[in-house]
Amino acid sequence: MNLEKRKYVKDALNEKDNSKVVVAGWVEKIKSMGNINFINLRDRTGVLQIVSQRFKEINKLTPESVIVASGIMKKGQKKSGEKELLLEDFEVMNKAETPLPIDLVQDTTQIDKRINNRFLDARNPKVNAIFRIRSEIFKAIVDFFSEEGFININTPKITSSGVESGAELFEVKYFNKGAYLSQSPQIYKQMMVAAGFEKVYEIGPVFRAEKSRTVRHLTEFTGVDMEMGFIESEDDVMDVVERMMKYIIRHTTAKCEYELDTLNIELKIPNKIPRIKMKEVKLMLDKCGKKLGEEDDLDSEAEKLIGEIVKEKYNSEFVFVTDYPWSKRPFYHMKPKNNKNSTKSFDLIFNGTEIATGAQREHRYEILKQQGKEKGVNLDSIKGYKDIFRFGCPTHGGVGLGLDRIVQCLLKLDNIRESILFPRDPDRLSP
Ligand code: AMO
Known about the structure:
This protein has two domains: 3-94, CATH 2.40.50.140; 120-418, BirA Bifunctional Protein, domain 2. Helix content is 28%, strand content 26%. The protein is built from eleven helices and 16 strands. The strands form three sheets. Strands 6-10-11-16-15-14-13-12 form an eight-stranded mixed β-sheet, sandwiched between helices. A five-stranded mixed barrel has the order 1-2-3-5-4. It binds aspartyl-adenosine-5'-monophosphate (AMO). Residues 164, 184, 186, 208, 210, 217-218, 221, 223, 225, 354-359, 398-402, 404-405 line the site of aspartyl-adenosine-5'-monophosphate.
């Protein structure tokens, strides 16, 4: 059958009565009433009912087979007046075996088995909706950075050293040398600010050798990283992040009405996102019975709780927690003028989950060297890093967000594995 004449279901449904069309897609459902056969045919744009009285072979079709069908569009029996296709001819492109390895009708299959069969799982309209939305979120981020004058960069994912915690590095064989998978484009984005681009971003894979079996950790995720020069403080970075979150939500609401409906999700564009110092956050948590020491980081329970408190108090799904203790931040975070135990840093928490970490960076070489010493990091061991600060480097700061976590939190998904097609975790290396 001639695929050149193929119409998407969405366009076929808009054809005039008696138009001849060719459609192609997956057999979602087959039903017989007397000697009439009905097929629900699904393609990437929708579902079309096909009606036939002539073809006995239809009874031999199996769910999820791929067919090409031609016929005449007619007003159907449905109250909505939606058109259907009166079948004239059809061809089986690929017959699906039975039974299917996962349940696409009742949606009862466990997540692990679903991911093992992801290409089938993604035919489920809800799963499909998640990845269409993810694609729009990605586009929104690219559009946003572009409109704000950021330059896109691509940096190496095989590196000779890390800059975050050493424990999280995946070692790889690189001919006769030791190498690592990149745990962050941190060095490179700072380098490119110093290169004079001033504002750069990258969306790319980030690898973390974390043996965390949680609903929010992956060993490979998509990082959204940006860095900007000539800032006055970390507030300038937070301003950009805040504008970006609003942009993403506005764009997704406008472009994904059908998909958001499918998932029963209503997005809310945030008002001003509150910025609360860590000390104050700890007092708020304390009042709710969660005690944390001065040097403690927020654990996942604390993040969840502060998410609830902020929702109640500020009617906000987002909160920037600022001024993290120096003991919990990497050596390159700048300290405020009068407090050597704090940092000019922040995390963004969205519905109780951290989705971003950022800071103003220390750009003064001597101080940075000293900070490295305090953390046991020898700047010479990070190839090319120290030189960024020796030959003309403006004040700068940036942020790293996890795309998978953004999708997870925006769509209120229980598990981060729902927001990435092919998750990697300590127990999964395929598909
Ligand atoms: P950080 O290590 O906090 O900061 O990472 C930034 C953001 O990446 C996401 N993320 C993860 N997502 C899924 N699985 C993981 N294991 C995981 N780890 C982190 C989170 C997190 O907020 N260089 C700094 C960023 C910067 O300062 O610019 C960094 O990498 O959403």
